[in-house]
Amino acid sequence: MIEPVKRINVTDSIVNQIKELVLQGELNQGDKLPPERELMTLFEVGRPSLREALKVLEAQGLIEKSQKGTVITGNHDKFFTDSLMFLLYFSSTDWQDIFESRRFIERELTYLTTTRATIEDFIEMEKTIVNMELAINKDNQEDYVSANLHFHEKIAKSSKNLVMYHLYQSINKLIEHAQVQAVTVPGIMDDSLQYHKDILTAMKQRNAELASDLMVNHITSVHGFLQKKQNY
């Protein structure tokens, strides 16, 4: 429930309370916020503070103004994912932490995907592997990184677990940065390609333990290649 504002920073308190209502499921996509006058009474704040808070929420994509009034958008899950992503991306995150997180998150995603993916999902993964092979033949590192990331994202999405998928998305930019660094190391593209083929084969055989173990080995291998780079 909305409570009277007790913090000194009134705007932040309003923003945080509305975010909390979204997280708790008390406000959902399409729900209309009460009129400004009613919100002012509920929060026990003045119009300037309330309007400033609503501007912040609108800029963050959590609310939008329509003919119905001010409503909750369907972008709140992306907002919370992006918030974590930017927090990690612009902090002094240690690479060891990133690869430990990848091993944990992607192992579980691979396990779930092996048991839940459809034939169509596997076909999409096969296409990304073909694109990786084409990129290697052309010695096109940019295309290789793109296809590589697409393969991992497809696994994440095919897990059918929204929470795990967003956890993966939250470190996606950091993964991309690592891939761009790693792809310049001689031999890594061929090594990575073989791992992707083996992982997909295990998934298609519905061997979840093998597929997830191969994913961990693959991520560990990439980390090892990166450690060979000078000043890494």
From TrEMBL:
Lineage: superkingdom: Bacteria
Segments forming domain HTH gntR-type: 8-75
Keywords for this protein: DNA-binding, Transcription, Transcription regulation
InterPro entries: GntR_C, TF_FadR/GntR_C, Tscrpt_reg_HTH_GntR, WH-like_DNA-bd_sf, WH_DNA-bd_sf
Signal peptide location: none
GO molecular function: DNA binding; DNA-binding transcription factor activity
Keyword Transcription annotated: yes
Identification of the protein by name: FadR family transcriptional regulator
